[in-house]
Amino acid sequence: MTRDYHKYISTRAIELQPSGIRKFFDLAAGMEGVISLGVGEPDFITPWNIRDRSIEALSDGFTSYTANAGLLELREEICAYLNRRFDVTYQPENEVIVTVGASQALDLTFRTLLNSGDEVLIIEPAFVAYASLVAMAGGIPVSVSTYAENGFKVTPELIEASITKRTKAILICSPNNPTGTCLNKEELTAIAEVVEKHDLIVVSDEIYAELTYDQAFTSFSSLPRMFERTILINGFSKGFAMTGWRLGFIAAPKELTSIMLKIYQHTTMCAPHMLQLGAIEALRNSSEQVEKMQKSYWRRRNLLVQSLNRIGLDCHMPGGAFYVFPSIKKTGLTSEEFAENLLKEEKVAVVPGSAFGPSGEGYVRCSYATSIEQLQEAVVRMERFLGRYVDR
Amino acid sequence: MKLLQEQLDILEILEENHQVSTKSIAEQLQLDEEEVKKHIKQLEQDGIIVSYPALIDWSKIEGKEAIVAMVDVKVTPKRGVGFDEVAERIYRYPEVKSLYLMSGTYDLSVSVEGKSMKDIALFISEKLSTIESVVSTTTHFMLKKYKHDGVIMEGDKDDDRRMVITP
């Protein structure tokens, strides 16, 4: 007899939405010859000096716990880096926590901020985990839809229309996954006014900050009076090509980090010691390689945006990350049908926009973190595919 | 010589893979294709792009394996022409694959290629060391080529290990 486990499982866990990406993963995983534009991580391996440092750390026996917030030496490097690159000032002693990926930083943030029923505004299309992370912490995710006509930029008006008495925080991800949209200083400043007016906290997911192409990146925390309202989340995954290391960090006023640390002590203890040592090396000696990777993404972005527009998949020029978010509306297919048919017929994997919330419907996410040759071949296949679905 | 940023960008792309089409380069750099062609022509004329060789691992081909020796050469420089004259006398031999003027305990680093050790020994004793300004030679035979001009020879282990779709 099989046991019915349902009664043992929490309602909250059951009600959690599975990631819309999972299904395509299963479908694509068994296929040969697939060109994947579906990968949300760099195609670079972590620079060798960083890997080498952690290998050395491991052989030297750095296998113990560290301080909950991470090695002080690493926190010092993080603060120096944030100051150097983004013009924000944090104290290594008590305003930074090294986490297991930016994902955990988000989890820690919402557990710290939210009471049951508190609302968090999420700018959509959005990273698949945001809404679930808010919900797991007992909060209510409230979507703020953005539109292609405006390059998927959120405006103060859109935000204000969604604010209620229960709104506690706004989650901003710029550059954005999946749209690649970047908010510049003026646009963020306009949002800051709304934040102040309604007395909100901003959770600023800046994981793609290093991958910003046409304009300088602006950290929300660097805006006047916003330090005290910002929980800055960043990490090593994207800019340093260290996704599998699972290393991120939070920088926030100490009144918040002290509470976060309390939760962190009980859930995780600390990030892996030997990997933290690699992260120190990353911050000290990798700027040249980071720049090289940025440049390579920039070139591929230009190529892919131009190619997609040429074959009739309209897309805006995204200012950052490594995603292009073209409209597939003229095919008459839903984004899920498009992705599924494209995979089956032409073996090109993209992620349906609907996986990133209802406002992503009609679009697909194409990652250009793959070789130029693969991108060009993918475009050839997509053009052939479109020929069958679009009347010219 | 000072170059434009877009010329530098073109060089970076070509250095990675010189078979990239001018159309692709234009798209990658948001330039006009004609402009790219013009830049490349200019860079070739200016001797900045010297040639477009393929990197071939001859050691994998039966009967085509070559023996390579790195020879440290001490020479007496000549008044007026320094090392250039003797360098030229050496690098004109087709057996010489590369030649560098070095700082340190010897002057010229010469890589010599031949079909056998005997070939190389013959070249060194009969051609190289008989040049009058050559004072001495020290020969090191190369056993294995791991990396050449920035390229790892034995297949880069950096395969794509990512899952097909990730968030």
Q: What features would you describe in this structure?
A:
The complex is a heterodimer of chains A (392) and B (167). Chain A is an alpha/beta fold and 392 residues long. Chain A has two domains: 5-46 and 288-389, Aspartate Aminotransferase, domain 1 (Alpha-Beta Complex); 48-285, Type I PLP-dependent aspartate aminotransferase-like (Major domain) (Aspartate Aminotransferase, domain 2, 3-Layer(aba) Sandwich), CATH 3.40.640. Chain A has 13 helices and twelve strands. In chain A, the strands form three sheets. In chain A, strands 2-8-7-6-5-3-4 form a seven-stranded mixed sheet, sandwiched between helices. A three-stranded antiparallel sheet of chain A has the order 9-12-11. A two-stranded parallel ribbon of chain A has the order 1-10. In chain A, helix 4 packs parallel to helix 10 and helix 5 (101-113) crosses helix 6. The longest helix of chain A is centred in the last third of the chain and has 25 residues, at 287-311. The mean pLDDT of chain A is 96. The N and C termini of chain B lie far apart (46 Å). Chain B is α+β, with helices and mostly antiparallel strands and 167 residues long. Chain B folds into two domains: 5-45; 58-144, Lrp/AsnC effector binding domain/regulation of amino acid metabolism (RAM) domain (Alpha-Beta Plaits), CATH 3.30.70.920. In chain B, helix 2 (22-29) packs across helix 3 (33-45). Chain B has helices at residues 5-16, 22-29, 33-45, 84-91, 117-128; strands at residues 67-75, 96-101, 108-114, 134-141, 147-148, 151-152. In chain B, strands 2-3-1-4 form a four-stranded antiparallel sheet. Chain B has a two-stranded antiparallel ribbon with strand order 5-6. The interface between A and B is medium-sized, with 29 and 17 residues.
